[in-house]
Amino acid sequence: MKAGNALAEALANGRFFWSLEFIPSVDRILRDDLTQLGGIAAVMRGSDRLVTFAVTDRVVSERDPEPVAAAASLGDSTGKQPLVHFSGKGRELGDLERVIGRMQANGLENMLVLTGDRIKLEPVRGRARYLESVPALAFARHLMPRALLACALNPFKYREEEGMAQFYKLDRKMEAGADLAITQIGFDPAKHDDAIDWVRRRCPEARLVANVMLLPAARARYMRKHALAGITITDSLMAMLEAEAALPREGAAARALRRLALQIVGVELAGYAGVQITGLHAPERVEALNEAVCKAGHDCPDRASWNEAWQDALTAPDGSRADPVPLGARWRLGQRGTAVAGFGERFRYRALEGIHRAVFERGPLAACFGAAMRPFHGKEGTLAGRAIHFIERAVKAPIVGCETCGQCRLGATQFVCPETCPKGLANGPCGGTTLNRCEFGDRECIHSVKLRLAAAAGVEEQLGSGLIAAVPAESRNRTSWPSHFAGDGTLAERRTDERDRAVRGPV
Ligand code: SF4
Fold this sequence. Notes:
CATH topology of the domain at 6-216 and 271-280: TIM Barrel
Strand content: 5-15%
Distance between the termini: 37 Å
Oligomer: single chain
Bound molecules: iron/sulfur cluster
CATH class of the domain at 6-216 and 271-280: Alpha Beta
């Protein structure tokens, strides 16, 4: 396709824009969205505001068609460069390389790289693997130096640990090469403000885009029932939507549309570069939204009038008011001191740090151990290498949950093993936590633990800098000790200008 890149132009000119999201899926209803696009394609072609459309990857299932073909064909019919999503679910760097190759062959220039939510089709044997967004972004930037790269951010977090960990990970994504961040869907304007606040202070060249969604009661019910990762719909918000659903149909629909329009006006006032609109594809509904946004913009020229209108929009027909903030959890960016590591956590951290220094970094013990290990570098597959692998796993598994990934990252992850994250993430959390609980529901998110430890040790800034390499499949189930002492280990302190090695990991 030879379309101009209207998204890049809007970002460069600071012109507030809209993007529509499409979900390629094996599911019939969603597939129809992509095959019956005549009307919306014409609307997009003629609109200055609708500068792009996003085509998602592996949202409904891992069997969903890869988005490149749909994005290229939609791009041809709309005349707009799409934003192609790439999800790391069940993928390796080689998969990303192949997708980028197909994008380049089709003239596609914009990409959003994310880790993705929990895999639905777990492998029969072994654990599911995820390609982490941070090294994937660095690799995509390396392969596409002039592309527009986007990443995901979930600012809708209500505990200090999970909230700060999200923002530090955003720093790493920007360091890896992202140009803009697109938020998770959320209904709390204070969190949109927090994200803007962080970006302005930490990475002012980055742009933020808010993901917004029309939220009638039926959709909210579905999202709560399926516990969609990282999306917060509180009980009081749900109650308000149910009260609204009891109104005559037009009344309920008009209220939902007014709220969406207010969200769009609100994020523009807050300083966002644009919005990505989810779940709205019919031309007449896009036109109705256009009118609703014009009216909301006219009603709310400033934040004070907008706040009043937003409170009205959250007030149920019976007068009760919805609160988008979960009960008892009101953490905001800037509030510090609630993430306090316990004595046991601090003791464990200090003990492991001391052992790590003495055995792997400096001093006579490290010198002796290094001299013993170095000769086995490159011989990890031999009998001797396998014996060392056995010993490493026997020592480390009971202490840190080690799975001998062959590329030990403990020294860069506050001695919390990334393999104890169900997605194996080392650079920071996915967006799926709920009040520090893991998306998988069975543990506290390891990155919340890391935040507490880093804060207690006074090394919190480490969470936002240095890229931790992706673990290549071929290095798994091997010892990491010989390569560590040969200088091929990981580690996080590689900077952006060493990106090639960082994403490739040890060779
Ligand atoms: S431990 Fe944290 S980063 Fe890992 S899957 Fe759970 S919520 Fe996501």
